[in-house]
Specification:
binds zinc ion; 9-stranded mixed beta sheet; alpha+beta; 13 helices; 42% helix; Arc Repressor Mutant, subunit A; 14 strands; 18% strand; 3-stranded antiparallel beta sheet
Amino acid sequence: MVRIGFEIHVQLGTESKLFCPCSTRFLDAEPNTNVCPVCTAQPGSKPDGINEDAVEKALKVALALGCDVVEKPLRFLRKHYFYPDLPNNYQRTSEPLAVNGELAGVRIREIHIEEDPGRYELREGLVDYNRSGVPLIEIVTEPDLRSVEDARDFLRHLRAVLDYLDVLLYPQIGFRVDANISIEGGERVEVKNINSIQSVVKALKYEIVRHKRVLSTGGRVARETRHWDEARGITVSLREKESVDDYRYIVDPDIPPYRIDAESVERIRSALPELPHQKKERFVREYGIDGSAAWTFALDKELATFFEKLVAKHGVKNALSFCLNLRGELNYRNIYFADVQGKDRFYKLADLYFTGRITKPVYIEYLRKTLDDPDFVPGAQEQLSDEAIREIALEVLKANPKAVEDYRAGEKKALNFLVGQMVSKTKGRADPKKAIRILQEVLRAS
Ligand SMILES: [Zn+2]
């Protein structure tokens, strides 16, 4: 039996860092410009009080995941380790702020707040402290997942919840995952710092194969921490797992305990938005679409919004087919609808198609172009005149005398072949029904 659990690190979309007023936008600034004495740990610097917006966003996540908020005042601990990205030589990390939650049958053990370290480029020996002090939450699950597919579905669901709550600092980054995995007869292995859901899937599959191989040759799977090497697609041993003692946790005397009052919790709880599973149920109920399509849309917040607007304009049936095609193309590109620029162009494309100004092959072609080229604006295609279609029909008949003969001998398949030739020659610039009608006219006349 496989057991998988996660520690998920989510950078919170607050304006300022956890204990200082520096901007959190570490990707949008020159290295070491969003910094101050606090987040670079200059001698004599003292952290400000905790950023309340970070606590608020952490609580939103905790409540959406059904956690109980811990009542006693929240204390911050110093977790010691030594690395160039950590100027204090310790990371400030809170005690659990919430416990005992659940998402899709997976128990959430706890959620706590911590500060992100800076970024260290090992190869060049450069360090950037723009990220140092950015608020994070760590969501810790129990090892309740039993397969790689379930693990992937769980992370997608969690990702959607975070999107709905609008708490991510950089939605395009999403979250970082530490995955722990064990199979029967082996120890638990932790794979650190995996940056995407696809990579989690690859790392877990790799580990399952590795564990089985070790066990089947009489070896033992050591309890250890491994690193996911994205480029090579393998995990590499980092170190024997440190125990809690190695971090020498102490309460941080610079940060006063923070009391979360029950009123704030209730205010946040009552303001929670519709969550993905609720949206799915509503789509099934309101629009009568099947559960799997509803879930596909619900997992992509902006696609779900787009779907509802299309329903209002073009009806459920059209909106459903358009959005399923769109979802397919997004999946193929491994992106969310939020990652696509210029959403208005998709409304325009739907208008063009559902009012019959472009044909189906052109609509599909335009859908791909609209996704791939941010400058492409779909417009009504140049429609061929009846005369031009007639010309093409004559050419097709001339080029395919055998098919014409077969058609006259009563072979229905021959007509399909000729129609296919028409479609490819007109490149979708002719309405198919019209093309068939003209083709038949020409056949009768010749
Ligand atoms: Zn700072």
